[in-house]
Design goal:
Order of helices and strands: HHEHHEEEEEH
CATH topology of one domain: Arc Repressor Mutant, subunit A
Number of strands: 6
CATH architecture of one domain: Orthogonal Bundle
Helix content: 25-40%
Shape: globular
Radius of gyration: 16 Å
Structural class: alpha+beta
């Protein structure tokens, strides 16, 4: 469960985004604010076990709402699991790193470049770039 200060920050962000501020939205956004890396639906569900109003369907709805309001972003990875992370001021199209061993997914600081040449008349709307490998923790084992 997110700390009181994190929940206050989540509440403030929700108010700025407009719409209803609900306990479920505050708790889910709080978990994303504290995480430091992208979390799967299951990861978020585990962290919210005792939070009121956060059953599986509610969690999916809250995550969709947060993505629509650009408070969080959804990342599809090679393992076909969707993960969610908090949106920073400058985050939009940027690369990710996915650990093939533990499944951790991190947003990378560099922006994804849209240097792909498309046929005439085509216009890119979003670029998804994921680098797959071993995170620092998994790499320590030397494999």
């Amino acid at each position: 469960m997110a700390a009181k200060q994190t929940l206050q920050e989540a509440n403030a962000r929700l108010r700025r985004a407009g719409g209803r501020v609900t306990a479920a939205r505050v708790h889910v956004l709080g978990v994303l604010l504290e995480a430091g890396h992208a979390l799967s639906h299951h990861d978020i569900e585990e962290k919210l076990r005792r939070a009121a109003g956060t059953d599986r369907v509610t969690l999916y709805r809250v995550l969709d709402w947060l993505v629509e309001r650009q408070l969080a972003h959804r990342i599809s990875s090679a393992d076909r699991a969707r993960r969610y992370s908090i949106v920073g001021a400058e985050q939009h199209d940027h690369p990710h790193f996915h650990c093939g061993r533990c499944g951790k997914l991190l947003c990378l600081d560099q922006r994804a470049k849209q240097n792909v040449r498309l046929p005439r008349g085509y216009r890119p709307q979003r670029v998804e770039l994921t680098v797959t490998g071993l995170c620092a923790d998994c790499n320590r084992g030397g494999s």
